[in-house]
Design brief:
Layout lengths: L7 E4 L2 E4 L6 E5 L3 H12 L3 E6 L2 H4 L8 E4 L2 H12 L5 E5 L4 H11 L6 E4 L3 H13 L4 H4 L2 E2 L11 H28 L2
Parallel strand pairs: 3-4, 3-6, 4-5, 6-7, 7-8
Antiparallel strand pairs: 1-2
Helix pairs in contact: 1-7, 3-4
């Protein structure tokens, strides 16, 4: 069974009915950026999963309302995401800035049909990451879907600004995906 939000939620002012699956963010790695992304994404009604193999950093996770999985990101994507989450409503974000963790997750992420796959880093580190992934049997066609550097280019520096640029880009692409459906549904 795929993970989705409750379709009807009772609130103080009545009921809220949601149609379709919820969007999910899989955050690879605990970092200040992943904490900022999770905090902002909760306001946008994302279901959020953070995975990290490092128990010591997972103990530092303090954002409530987020599912936490200790494990290698490639295993989490293969065993949890593929089996239980609607991939075309999933964004996978590599946010540790540690190639030993991020690259493993990206190797698996680039083999699934997530609607957004992104990795933290500068132009230079993103170029090096692409070279490493090509050496690890990721094809140039698979690499085309990778958003690296991640997010909109707004000159972000702080974790909150980086989170804003990431969620702004994801929101922009989500809305662009819905636009043709919306137009065809309203056309005579």
């Amino acid at each position: 069974e795929k993970l989705t939000s409750k379709s009807v939620i009772e609130g103080e002012n009545g009921f809220h009915h949601f149609l379709g699956p919820s969007y999910t963010l899989l955050l690879i790695g605990v970092s200040e950026v992943s904490k900022a992304v999770a905090t902002m994404a909760l306001l946008l009604d994302y279901e959020i999963i953070v995975c990290d193999p490092r128990s010591e950093v997972l103990r530092e996770w303090n954002v409530e309302g987020v599912s936490v999985i200790q494990g290698m990101p490639d295993d989490v994507i293969r065993d949890v995401v593929r089996e239980h989450i609607s991939l075309d409503y999933t964004a996978i974000l590599a946010l540790t800035h540690d190639p030993r963790i991020d690259d493993m997750g990206l190797m698996e992420a680039l083999t699934v049909d997530a609607f957004y796959i992104g990795a933290l880093g500068s132009e230079r580190s993103s170029s090096k990451r692409r070279e490493r992934l090509l050496q690890l049997d990721i094809s140039p066609q698979q690499l085309e879907v990778l958003h690296a550097p991640i997010g909109l280019d707004i000159g972000s520096k702080t974790p909150a600004e980086i989170a804003l640029s990431i969620l702004g880009h994801i929101t922009q692409l989500r809305r662009a995906r819905l636009l043709p459906q919306t137009l065809s549904a309203t056309s005579p």
